[in-house]
Structure formats: C-alpha cells, structure tokens
Amino acid sequence: MKGRVLAVLLTGAELTHLDCWERFGSSRLAHHAFVLRGAGWPIQTVERSVPTSDGRLAAIAYYALPAATIDQAGEAGTAYIAAVAAAGGQP
Hints:
Layout: H1 2-10, H2 17-24, H3 29-38, E1 44-51, E2 57-64, H4 67-86
C-alpha cells in the first residue's frame, strides 16, 4: 500500500484520506505517509478548509511530495510509477 501511495505522490498528485480510500481501499493515509517519511521521503502535509454536506467547514489534510523531490527521483521515479502500475497498483 505504501508503494502505491508513493507512486501516486511521485506523479505530482496530492492525496487526501478520501482519495486513499477510494483508490486503494485504505483509510490509513496518515500512517502510510508516516512510514514513507521514516524511509526518507519528505512528504508534506497541508491542511485546507473544505465545505461539508451540512454547510460546516472541515480541515482536510492534503499529502504531497515537493516538486524538487519528484525532479530528483527523475527516471528512477518514472520507472517506479510504471512498475507499480504494471503490478496492478495504477497510480
């Protein structure tokens, strides 16, 4: 699961907990980010306010990799994304 999350982040996309649930069936995005950070990936978390269905505002965490990290991953990152997709974990 962590590898699939990493592959998505390497594409430059942001992920929320809902994205993780819908794409991967996992409600543990914060844990996946924690483990990936421990492995050296500088995953950033930004909270944004979003409207709820009943009109309130809720703070939602968005997870992403810095552009410089994605650039640094270069061809190896692109190959990793392709390998994850080929294994059925399409980012």
